[in-house]
């Protein structure tokens, strides 16, 4: 049996510039981190005693004799792409809900690719996992998704990810003094809006609008460098990072009328009144998790103001997708 553990991600700045339609003409970059909430995929060879060849357990249970019969899009695509012939049983468990802006779909795809590679006796590199996940989600499944989530969840850590016009990408770990990084950590709060959405559908409305929003996307890209300068500075107050989050959210809302809604707007308004400096909705938009930058002395007020929303404490992580268990099988 193989169990993989793949983190979720928080995208701070640059989201939208990671769509191939954009960065293949203009280039793009994002600043993101992974954190200590995970997607777990367990995978084992299915003993040859069943009428079915594949069993997939997630929010539902599927059995199939061939990958083409599987309904879960990522499982179907990965097993078909990998030309899997031997029977498998695959289970998914997640620390946080899917369709919530944390890159959970890509965490699943990356984790499954890692598991399939390992069960075949091979350890995939983080670069392979990211590239293969991008190919599967964008080209095989045909989803309207960017390229940052696959890279972030495969590599892990606090990184600038640059997307080049030739379709390649580069991962640059950001060097920040430990005390400064801890200060950032202590100022961040994560709340679930209670609204789940299909990211591909929201993203499609943004993609259709990309070249009508050139100034916004160029500015969103420039915020990546500004944010890094703030984090690496010893003179600039850390609160400036929070203000940039608010600026990024204002720009992101201009990309599509589906990015926000009344519930999200109410959450953010209440947070600002209670003492938040800034914040933004994570992922494509439309719902999911909202990241807030809040001075520690104001966080009790914010929790009380948002008591109808779920608060999720978290810590940064640096491992990326990993094999959490490898146990040889008898079949």
Labels describing this entry:
Alpha-Beta Plaits; 9-stranded mixed β-sheet; alpha+beta; Ribosomal Protein S5, domain 2; 2 domains; 13 strands; 331 residues; 39% helix
Protein architecture, described:
The protein is of the alpha+beta class and 331 residues long. It has two domains: 2-174 and 317-326, Ribosomal Protein S5, domain 2 (2-Layer Sandwich); 178-314, 2-Layer Sandwich (Alpha-Beta Plaits). It has eleven helices and 13 strands. The longest helix is centred in the last third of the chain and has 19 residues, at 214-232. The chain is globular.
At a glance:
The chain contains eleven helices and 13 strands. The protein has helices at 20-26, 73-81, 104-119, 126-140, 148-155, 178-187, 199-207, 214-232, 239-253, 262-274, 299-305, and strands at residues 2-13, 28-45, 54-57, 61-64, 88-94, 158-163, 169-173, 188-192, 278-281, 289-293, 310-311, 316-317, 322-326. Helix 10 runs antiparallel to helix 11 (299-305).
How are the SSEs placed, and which strands pair?
Blueprint: E1 2-13, H1 20-26, E2 28-45, E3 54-57, E4 61-64, H2 73-81, E5 88-94, H3 104-119, H4 126-140, H5 148-155, E6 158-163, E7 169-173, H6 178-187, E8 188-192, H7 199-207, H8 214-232, H9 239-253, H10 262-274, E9 278-281, E10 289-293, H11 299-305, E11 310-311, E12 316-317, E13 322-326
Parallel strand pairs: 3-5
Antiparallel strand pairs: 1-2, 1-13, 2-5, 2-6, 2-12, 3-4, 6-7, 8-10, 8-11, 9-10
């Amino acid at each position: 049996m193989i169990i993989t553990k793949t983190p979720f991600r928080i995208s701070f700045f640059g989201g939208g510039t990671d769509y191939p339609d954009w960065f293949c003409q203009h280039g793009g970059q994002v600043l993101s981190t992974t954190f200590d909430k995970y997607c777990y995929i367990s995978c084992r060879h299915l003993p040859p005693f069943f009428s079915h060849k594949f069993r997939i357990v997630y929010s539902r249970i599927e059995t199939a004799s061939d990958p083409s019969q599987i309904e879960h899009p990522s499982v179907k695509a990965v097993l078909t792409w990998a030309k899997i012939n031997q029977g498998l049983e695959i289970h998914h468990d997640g620390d946080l809900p899917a369709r919530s802006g944390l890159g959970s779909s890509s965490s699943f795809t990356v984790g499954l690719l890692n598991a399939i590679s390992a069960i075949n006796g091979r350890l995939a590199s983080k670069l392979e996992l990211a590239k293969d996940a991008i190919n599967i989600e964008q080209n095989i499944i045909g989803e309207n998704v960017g390229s940052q989530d696959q890279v972030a969840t495969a590599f892990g850590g606090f990184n600038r990810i640059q997307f080049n016009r030739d379709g390649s990408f580069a991962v640059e770990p950001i060097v920040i003094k430990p005390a400064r990084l801890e200060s950032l950590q202590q100022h961040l709060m994560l709340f679930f809006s209670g609204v789940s959405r299909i990211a591909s559908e929201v993203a499609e409305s943004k993609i259709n609008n990309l070249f009508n929003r050139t100034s916004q996307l160029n500015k969103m890209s420039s915020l990546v460098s500004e944010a890094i300068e703030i984090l690496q500075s010893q003179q600039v107050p850390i609160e400036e990072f929070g203000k940039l989050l608010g600026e990024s959210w204002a720009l992101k809302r201009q990309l599509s009328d589906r990015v926000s809604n009344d519930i999200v707007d109410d959450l953010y308004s209440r947070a600002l009144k209670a003492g938040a400096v800034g914040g933004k909705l994570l992922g494509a938009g439309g719902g999911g998790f909202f990241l807030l930058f809040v001075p520690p002395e104001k966080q009790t007020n914010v929790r009380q103001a948002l008591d109808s929303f779920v608060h999720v404490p978290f810590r940064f992580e640096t491992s990326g997708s990993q094999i959490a268990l490898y146990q040889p099988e008898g079949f």
